[in-house]
Amino acid sequence: MENRVKDLRLQRQLTQEELARLLGVSRQTIISIENGRYNPTLMLAYRIAKFFSLSIEEVFDCAKELKKLAGGKNDVL
Fold this sequence. Notes:
6 helices, 57% helix, DNA binding, DNA-binding, Cro/C1-type_HTH
Protein backbone atom coordinates (compact mmCIF):
# COMPACT_ATOMS: atom_id res chain seq x y z
CA MET A 1 0.00 0.00 0.00
CA GLU A 2 1.37 3.37 -0.93
CA ASN A 3 1.35 6.13 1.66
CA ARG A 4 2.41 9.71 2.35
CA VAL A 5 3.62 9.17 5.92
CA LYS A 6 7.25 10.13 5.24
CA ASP A 7 6.31 13.29 3.35
CA LEU A 8 3.81 14.32 6.02
CA ARG A 9 6.33 13.61 8.78
CA LEU A 10 9.01 15.67 7.06
CA GLN A 11 6.59 18.55 6.51
CA ARG A 12 6.10 18.65 10.28
CA GLN A 13 9.88 18.38 10.77
CA LEU A 14 9.51 15.26 12.90
CA THR A 15 11.97 12.41 13.19
CA GLN A 16 10.77 8.84 12.88
CA GLU A 17 11.41 8.46 16.61
CA GLU A 18 9.30 11.51 17.47
CA LEU A 19 6.38 10.39 15.31
CA ALA A 20 6.58 6.89 16.75
CA ARG A 21 6.50 8.25 20.30
CA LEU A 22 3.54 10.52 19.53
CA LEU A 23 1.61 7.60 18.02
CA GLY A 24 2.62 5.09 20.68
CA VAL A 25 4.43 2.72 18.32
CA SER A 26 8.04 1.73 17.73
CA ARG A 27 10.39 3.58 15.41
CA GLN A 28 10.69 0.34 13.44
CA THR A 29 6.93 0.44 12.81
CA ILE A 30 7.21 3.93 11.31
CA ILE A 31 10.21 2.86 9.21
CA SER A 32 8.32 -0.18 7.90
CA ILE A 33 5.20 1.85 7.07
CA GLU A 34 7.21 4.52 5.27
CA ASN A 35 9.06 1.88 3.24
CA GLY A 36 5.84 0.08 2.34
CA ARG A 37 6.91 -3.13 4.07
CA TYR A 38 4.10 -3.00 6.65
CA ASN A 39 0.46 -2.06 6.28
CA PRO A 40 -0.80 -0.58 9.54
CA THR A 41 -3.87 -1.84 11.30
CA LEU A 42 -7.02 0.14 10.67
CA MET A 43 -6.73 1.71 14.12
CA LEU A 44 -3.13 2.79 13.55
CA ALA A 45 -3.98 4.13 10.08
CA TYR A 46 -6.78 6.12 11.68
CA ARG A 47 -4.45 7.50 14.38
CA ILE A 48 -1.85 8.48 11.76
CA ALA A 49 -4.46 10.21 9.60
CA LYS A 50 -6.00 11.99 12.59
CA PHE A 51 -2.55 13.13 13.76
CA PHE A 52 -2.01 14.84 10.39
CA SER A 53 -5.63 16.13 10.30
CA LEU A 54 -6.34 14.12 7.14
CA SER A 55 -8.61 11.27 6.14
CA ILE A 56 -7.19 7.76 5.90
CA GLU A 57 -7.62 7.95 2.12
CA GLU A 58 -5.51 11.10 2.00
CA VAL A 59 -2.63 9.31 3.73
CA PHE A 60 -2.94 5.75 2.41
CA ASP A 61 -3.65 4.61 -1.16
CA CYS A 62 -4.68 1.00 -1.50
CA ALA A 63 -5.91 1.16 -5.13
CA LYS A 64 -3.30 -1.34 -6.36
CA GLU A 65 -4.18 -3.87 -3.66
CA LEU A 66 -7.91 -3.50 -4.31
CA LYS A 67 -7.35 -4.02 -8.03
CA LYS A 68 -5.39 -7.22 -7.32
CA LEU A 69 -8.20 -8.50 -5.09
CA ALA A 70 -10.72 -7.79 -7.84
CA GLY A 71 -8.69 -9.71 -10.40
CA GLY A 72 -7.56 -6.58 -12.23
CA LYS A 73 -11.01 -5.00 -12.50
CA ASN A 74 -11.24 -1.29 -11.80
CA ASP A 75 -14.76 -1.28 -10.35
CA VAL A 76 -13.98 -2.60 -6.86
CA LEU A 77 -15.43 0.33 -4.96
